[in-house]
Structures are given as structure tokens and as C-alpha cells.
Automatic annotation (TrEMBL), chain A:
UniProt organism field: Musa troglodytarum (fe'i banana)
Positions that bind Mn(2+): H62, H110, D198, H202
Name the record gives this protein: Superoxide dismutase
Single GO molecular function: superoxide dismutase activity
Enzyme class: oxidoreductase
Location within or outside the cell: Mitochondrion matrix
Keyword presence, Zinc: no
Keywords: Manganese, Metal-binding, Mitochondrion, Oxidoreductase
Pfam families attached to this UniProt entry: Sod_Fe_C, Sod_Fe_N
Domain Manganese/iron superoxide dismutase C-terminal, chain residue ranges per copy: 130-230
InterPro entries: Fe/Mn_Superoxide_Dismutase, Mn/Fe_SOD, Mn/Fe_SOD_BS, Mn/Fe_SOD_C, Mn/Fe_SOD_N, Mn/Fe_SOD_N_sf, SOD_C_sf
Oligomer status and interactors: Homotetramer.
TrEMBL record, chain B:
Protein origin, superkingdom: Eukaryota
UniProt family annotation: Belongs to the iron/manganese superoxide dismutase family.
Stretches assigned to the Manganese/iron superoxide dismutase C-terminal domain: 136-254
Ranges for domain Manganese/iron superoxide dismutase N-terminal: 46-128
Protein name: superoxide dismutase
Organism of derivation: Musa troglodytarum
InterPro entries per UniProt: Mn/Fe_SOD, Mn/Fe_SOD_BS, Mn/Fe_SOD_C, Mn/Fe_SOD_N, Mn/Fe_SOD_N_sf, SOD_C_sf
Keywords linked to the UniProt accession: Chloroplast, Iron, Metal-binding, Oxidoreductase, Plastid
Catalyzed reactions: 2 superoxide + 2 H(+) = H2O2 + O2
Needed cofactors: Fe cation
Pfam families: Sod_Fe_C, Sod_Fe_N
Compartments where located: Plastid, Chloroplast
Principal subcellular localisation of the protein: plastid
Alphabetized SUPFAM superfamilies for the sequence: Fe,Mn superoxide dismutase (SOD), C-terminal domain, Fe,Mn superoxide dismutase (SOD), N-terminal domain
Length: 237, 300
């Protein structure tokens, strides 16, 4: 990894050679010339490891093309924002907001999404226990009811977008959908994402075509409830 | 079978504007008070096939894509729309009217997404053809050059709209008349130059007829439109669409319809304004007569 490549525009267009500074860091940021830029996080499993629920081809495209594009475009927008702010160009600052929200949101959402998934032989699909399990039973009556609700909202969503959330203020769980790549926080500053399901067509089309309900039914087999529990415990501690 | 052939051929019908009031929500709120089953008008909107075979757009748009895009997505919208409007006030209306009515001025009702997507997809299939592409000519080319500077500049803007749209939606080339959307306001010096070609984009199912534009060309940038053939490469899909698929003849025909419609509405506006003027003039004459009476009595 050559530090000098960070200084050129070209460095932002390829995933290869990018490694996060702190692999455990949720935001996968790195420092360059004072501007903190985003980097594509690695997956904790192979592209094919979630089959047959999600095909390796989809995982590869989703990660290497779609998520990478969000990272690249987010970084570009941040650079332009830095310049606009330095020049005091208010209209440029405002104009860049939608690109930042869309691409930044896409980066945030997908970084969480990869952690929401796990191969079956590593615990994917295993239902939540203890604290999160009880919270689900309290707020939704049962895991089945929660799954049904998320599937119904996910199937009904026109276009794109997402979520299972914890409201930090009330300590209650809720199911929220957001449009396009809006991150969950755009629906409420107190909302913490525990589990998200990408219902953009690129997340399932090559395998499930127009039958989004089948994708939603199958994805639960590879959902990583352990991660959701960890976040839940941390936020409710 | 309902007739919505004109709207599906891509022009907006040159007829009176759709009724603004309807009772969709009222019917639903009143405990779903629908007509009894025997009296219900069954909605009969049909899935129109594209005017070419499903394989004939290969290799630019595969048979498989058409099978899913037309055969599943578009078909599902037709079925859902028929289900949702059966027995309601929207049942029996033309598709254009259903779209505008269910858009509900920006607060869309449940049938909207299906109505608009049926309209949009009919329009989309008609906008392309095997052996498409090339360049337009005649009045369409003149207006493109007038409003964009050049054909290439228009293509650039159209591509940019299609590529920078965040999320699902559509990019459009539309003809817009400079009408003020306020009851008694009138364009004081209307001219043909006020009517312009414009490129715009819309999210999800939204369709420019709800803004009173006349669509001429559309490209579907929902991922299902291109994912099987181009995966994430939307840019490739958009350039192939413009180079190899667009039917400029259809776009041109739609422009003729749009221009005629704008001219007809301008004539209606003019007639209305003349009638209003005549009314004012007439009543002023009466006023003057009364005033002169009052003056005489004061003089005495």
C-alpha cells in the first residue's frame, strides 16, 4: 500500500490496495492529508459462503461494484465539500448534500449489512437468545412475528431501502424502512441499526428475479443474530 | 376493455383535463363501502404487449429481460391496479386520469404506484424498437437544437439524468407548455417559444403527466430494467438504449401530439380571456350609466 497513491484521484477508483487502518473500526476510515476518507471493508467470509441463500455472484457484484461505487463517490463528494467549505461556496456545499447522503448512506448501510450476514456453518440463521431474544418477544411477541413484519414491510417497499432498529431513548425495538440509501439515523437520531436487509433489486435480482418475497424468506437463514445482540447489549448497557 | 390506446401510444390525450375530485379515500374510509359484488364494475385494464417480439431487441435487451420486465413486473402492476380500483370511482376511468387522480397532488394513494408503472412501462416499450437509435429529424431536431444547443448536448443531459438518479426511477424528455397553474393568471404574451423540451428525472413510479408535462421519451432506471443484461453497469445500458434502441419516430409523433395539445389549450385560454374581457366591458358600461345619474343629482 503506497501512501503516495492516496494523493491522486486514481487511488479512489479501485478497491485493491485499500486496507482499513483499524480492521475492527466500524467506519473503516483512513487519514489522508487531514481528510478522513472511507474505505471498502472486507467481508468476514467468502463470496460463495452464503449460498444457497444468496449467490456468490450477487455477493461479489454487491461488494466489489455497488459498495465500492458508494465508497468512491462518497470520497469524491467529501473532497469537493472540503474545497467548497474552504472557499466559502455555500451553494456548492448545499448542492453536495444529496450525493453525500446517498453515497455516504450507501457506505454506512452496506458496512453494517455485511456484518448482519454469516454463513450457516458459522452460526448464520441461529435465533437470538437472552437479552435481544427477550426484547424481541416483548416488543413483537415472537421472533416469527418480527420476521413476518420485516418481510411484509420489505416486500411492500417501493424502490429501495431497509431496517430493524433499537430506539436508544425508549429502549424499544422497532421495524423501520428508509428510502434509497438513507441511513437509519435520518429517521431519528436515537435509532440504532441492529439488523438491516437490503431490498434494492441489485441485492437479489440475479438469483430471485422479481420474486422479492423469496429472497426475504431465505435471507433469514444467513442472518447473524450474534452481531445484532452485541450491538443491542452495548447500547442497552 | 378500456380504451387507453392514445395514452399508451405515448402522446397525452388531447382532451379535457381529468376530474380533480374523486372518492377513492372516502370509499375506503367509510368502512370500505364498495358497490355490491353484482353491481361492481370489474376493472379491465389489460397488459399491452410491446409492438415487437420479445426476442427482437437482442443483443441490446435480452429476451430474458423482456420475459421478466414485461412478463412479470409490468404484468403484476396491471393485476394489482385492477384489484385495487375494482368497484371504486377510479374504475372505468382512462389510465391517464387514474394516474393523475391517484397521485392526489403529491400525496399518492395506493393505486398510484401501479397505475403509474403501468403507464410508464406501456410508454417505455413504445419508446424503443429493434434497429432503433440514429438521429431525429424535422421539427423534433429543430426543437432539440433550439432548447439544448445540439443533439449531442441533449443526449448528454439525458444520460446524466439517467445516471445521477439516486435510487429507482425514470429519466424523461418532456415537452412543457408555459402555463401558470393558478386559476386566473394568464401568460400576457404567450408564444411558441414558451413551450420547451426539458430533461428531467422522477423517483420510483412518478410520471411527469402529474406535473402537466407531455412526456416524449422515457428510460427505466430501476435496476430490474438492466440488471440481467448489464449488472451494475447502468452507464452501458443507458448508452446502448440511446444508440441502438430509441425510436425517434415515436418521439417525433408524440411531439406533434404535444404541440397540438398545447396549441389547443392556448386557444382555450385565449377564448376564456376574451370572454372575461367582454364580461368586464359589459358591466363597466352599466356602471357609467349609474354614475352619471348620481352626478346629476349631486349637481342639483
Amino acid at each position: 500500500m503506497a501512501l503516495r497513491t492516496l494523493f491522486s484521484k486514481k487511488a479512489f477508483t479501485t478497491a485493491s490496495g485499500f486496507r482499513p487502518i483499524a480492521a475492527g473500526d466500524r467506519c473503516f476510515l483512513r487519514q489522508a492529508r487531514g481528510l478522513t476518507v472511507a474505505a471498502l471493508p472486507d467481508l468476514a467470509y467468502d463470496y460463495g459462503a452464503l449460498e444457497p441463500a444468496i449467490s456468490g455472484e450477487i455477493m461479489r457484484l454487491h461488494h466489489q461494484k455497488h459498495h465500492q461505487a458508494y465508497v468512491t463517490n462518497y470520497n469524491n463528494a467529501l473532497e469537493q465539500l472540503e474545497t467548497a467549505m474552504a472557499k466559502g461556496d455555500a451553494s456548492a456545499v448545499v448542492r453536495l448534500q444529496s450525493a453525500i447522503k446517498f453515497n455516504g448512506g450507501g457506505h454506512i448501510n452496506h458496512s453494517i449489512f455485511w456484518k448482519n450476514l454469516k454463513p450457516v456453518n458459522e452460526g448464520g440463521g441461529e435465533p437470538p437468545h437472552s437479552t435481544l431474544g427477550w426484547a424481541i418477544d416483548t416488543d413483537f411477541c415472537s421472533l416469527e412475528a418480527l420476521v413476518q413484519k420485516m418481510n411484509a414491510e420489505g416486500a411492500a417497499l417501493q424502490g429501495s431501502g431497509w431496517w430493524l432498529a433499537l430506539d436508544k431513548g425508549s429502549k424499544k425495538l422497532s421495524v423501520e424502512t428508509t428510502a434509497n440509501q438513507d441511513p437509519l439515523v435520518s429517521k431519528g437520531a436515537n435509532l440504532v441499526p441492529l439488523l438491516g436487509i437490503d431490498v434494492w433489486e441489485h441485492a437479489y435480482y440475479l438469483q430471485y428475479k422479481n420474486v422479492r418475497p423469496d429472497y426475504l424468506k431465505n435471507i433469514w437463514k444467513v442472518i447473524n443474530w450474534k452481531y445484532a445482540s452485541e450491538v443491542f447489549d452495548e447500547e442497552t448497557a | 376493455m378500456q380504451h387507453q390506446t392514445l395514452s399508451c401510444c405515448g402522446g397525452v390525450r388531447a382532451s379535457s383535463p381529468p376530474p380533480l375530485s374523486f372518492r377513492w379515500s372516502k370509499i375506503k374510509r367509510e368502512g370500505g363501502r364498495r358497490l355490491p359484488r353484482c353491481a361492481r364494475i370489474a376493472a379491465h385494464l389489460e397488459l399491452k404487449p410491446p409492438p415487437y417480439s420479445l426476442s427482437s431487441l437482442e443483443p441490446h435487451m435480452s429476451r430474458e429481460t423482456l420475459d421478466y420486465h414485461w412478463g412479470r413486473h409490468h404484468r403484476a402492476h396491471v393485476a394489482s391496479l385492477n384489484n385495487l380500483i375494482a368497484g371504486t370511482d377510479l374504475d372505468g376511468m382512462g389510465l391517464d386520469e387514474i394516474v393523475v387522480a391517484s397521485y392526489n397532488k403529491g400525496n399518492p394513494l395506493p393505486p398510484f404506484v401501479h397505475a403509474a408503472q403501468v403507464w410508464n412501462h406501456d410508454f417505455f416499450w413504445q419508446s424503443i424498437k429493434p434497429g432503433g437509435g440514429g438521429r431525429p429529424s424535422g421539427r423534433l431536431m429543430e426543437l432539440i437544437e433550439r432548447d439544448f444547443g445540439s443533439f449531442d448536448r441533449m443526449l448528454e443531459e439525458f444520460e446524466r439524468a439517467a445516471l445521477t438518479h439516486f435510487g429507482s426511477g425514470w429519466a424523461w424528455l418532456v415537452y412543457t407548455a408555459n402555463r401558470l397553474d393558478v386559476g386566473n393568471a394568464v401568460n400576457p404574451c404567450p408564444s411558441e417559444k414558451d413551450n420547451k423540451l426539458v430533461v428531467l428525472k422522477s423517483p420510483n413510479a412518478v410520471n411527469p403527466i402529474v406535473w402537466d408535462y407531455s412526456p416524449l421519451l422515457a428510460i427505466d432506471v430501476w435496476e430490474h430494467a438492466y440488471y440481467l443484461d448489464y449488472e451494475n453497469r447502468r452507464a452501458d445500458y443507458v448508452s446502448i438504449f440511446l444508440e441502438k434502441l430509441v425510436s425517434w419516430e415515436v418521439v417525433s409523433d408524440r411531439l406533434d401530439v404535444a404541440i397540438e395539445r398545447a396549441a389547443e389549450r392556448a386557444r382555450e385560454d385565449e377564448t376564456r380571456r376574451l370572454e372575461d374581457d367582454a364580461e368586464i366591458t359589459h358591466s363597466e358600461a352599466v356602471e357609467m350609466y349609474l354614475d352619471s345619474d348620481a352626478d346629476d343629482s349631486e349637481a342639483e
